[in-house]
Amino acid sequence: MNFFYYIIFICAIFASEFIPENAQEINYTQIFFRWPQIQNQSSYQFILSDNMAFIDSDTTISVSNSIIYDEFLDWESTYYWKACSVEEITDMCLPTKYFTINPLPEHHANQINIFHIDEEEYTNGINVLDFESLNYSVAIDRYGETIWFAEKDNFDFSRIIVTQFLDNGNLIGFSNGTGYEFNLDSDIIFQTPSEYSIHHQISKTNTGTYFFIDAEIEYHDCPVECDDAFSDFPIPWQGDRFIEINSSGQEIWEWNTFDHISLVEYNPYYAETYNGTIELDWTHSNSVLYDSTSESVYVSIRNLSRVTSIDYQTGNINWNLGESDFMENPSFENELNFSQQHSAQLTPSGNLIFFDNARYQEPELSRCVEVGFDNDEPFLVWEHTLPDSMFTGSRGECDRLSSGNSLISAGRTGNVIEVNSENELVWHLNVNDQHGYDVTIYRTERIENLFPSAFSFEISNITGEYSNYSIANNGFLDIRIYNHGWGTNEFEYSLSDYLGTVILDGSVVDSSSIIELSLDLSTYNIDNSSYLFSLNPANNSNNNQEISFYFTDLLLGDLNEDNQIDILDVMVALNLIISSSEYVENADINQDGNLDIFDIIFLLNIILIDNN
């Protein structure tokens, strides 16, 4: 029976030991590779080729059993790869694997142009953005080369608009009414319940909950500006609910505009133009942001030209910033003169930053606005006004980058620019579709690369091949974690037996690129059966690496713990004696309490006897 469990145990592990998986088809050209450990290796040869014979292959030396490949690969291509030992003592290669990068989709925007780039000032990274008018999202590099696209047919209505790239390597986005968390392969990890009608934004918090905007309709009298034909009966007003749900889809926080904003606070333009064919577009909110530091929720209510700060605990309004003509009780004297804004966010310093569309202003010039607060009164910290050719009546976003530069998406114009704090142009992207029309770009996010949670690990003194590992039980399990990612510094681990019973588990927090972890097994009943060690980033339990192995008894004299006694152990023993290191019981072959030449003699005798 134990053998049966072990077979299941092994099959479950080795199916995912190689990344990319064998024969996998992918929609990205930046690749993270991971492979099983080879015994007695301090580094590996990683070999990549576009042919099975590895003619004209590229070889990279890696100190870990994983690598984010430096170069972007080609679309519509198949690649072969393998990892081999470097040390001659273990001359072997793991099995060759292959993967295929799909072609770019037929609907892909084929006019992606970089009109300007300042290489020195460009903030390092790649750009994740939505091609909203084409119903999908992409990632491009600084030169306009596409390096990832979402498979829109995996989502409702063949549409997916990315709103957030997570530190766990997944993405957040929405289709018509439905919100998603999904991975780079467009596999859906989480989907919002069908009872909601999500629009404009969904985001995920650091605590694992989801915030989004849900349309809400109530019937009320039409304002006095409405046509007389609508004055005798209630009409549908469309407001919004700002919702927080947990990973089980349970609602844990809600804020309804109908409960907190008076119906006398409206924009008369939408009453004047109401024709009865659709709802009165009262609020038309377009962003929601939860800030754990202030325990506040910031929302952008477009049709009221208002940004509102809400106390998360009480639901009370902290303040309203914007057009005072649409407020009963304005919070501030300074309105800052913005209109129809989008994407309210916070900078690292805590200032408010948003995209002012400036619709219906004189003149109509869209801009990026940063707002601070002094003595409870708002003031303009910084702004960047776009040229009139980039005016956009809707959509748009401003991001503050790590360098202090700002990334600005100019909505329906197909333009994204990066500017420095002196308002000098650093980078200019322009996108048109296959018919020459501007592609609507709502949001753009600059990230380091596609793999914020890329990692691997190796276990010290492991022997055997990846399908049959063993470890000499010296009372400790020593693990080295290689963290290639930029989105996590906390890892969770567990050690289980072949029945799946967890023997020990825990977590380690370390911002180093190489993390040493030593687990004391001396208090646990460890026998010579099979075990499973599993490791994953704390923010993504689905992204795990696992290895199964047997424990074996520690051989007296096996100083390098490779389950055999040979000249290598003699060399280790000599080093221990010469360096006067601390006492190592396994090197005291004659068990006299000392490490000396007599232990070397005994060790040589063991080798001679074994070889006869």
Structural overview:
The structure is a single chain. This protein is mainly beta and about 600 residues long. The protein has five helices and 42 strands. Strands 35-36-42-41-38-39 form a six-stranded mixed beta sheet, with helices on one face. Strand 31 and strand 32 form a beta hairpin. Helix 4 runs antiparallel to helix 5. The chain is elongated.
Quaternary structure classification: single chain
Ends distance: 39 Å
Low-confidence segments:
1-15
Quickly count the helices. 5
Calculate the mean pLDDT score and round it. Answer: 93
Query: Approximately what portion of the residues adopt beta-strand conformation?
Result: 35-45%
**Fraction of helical residues:** under 10%
DSSP, total strands: 42
- The strand order across the widest sheet is 35-36-42-41-38-39
Structural class: mainly beta
Radius of gyration: 30 Å
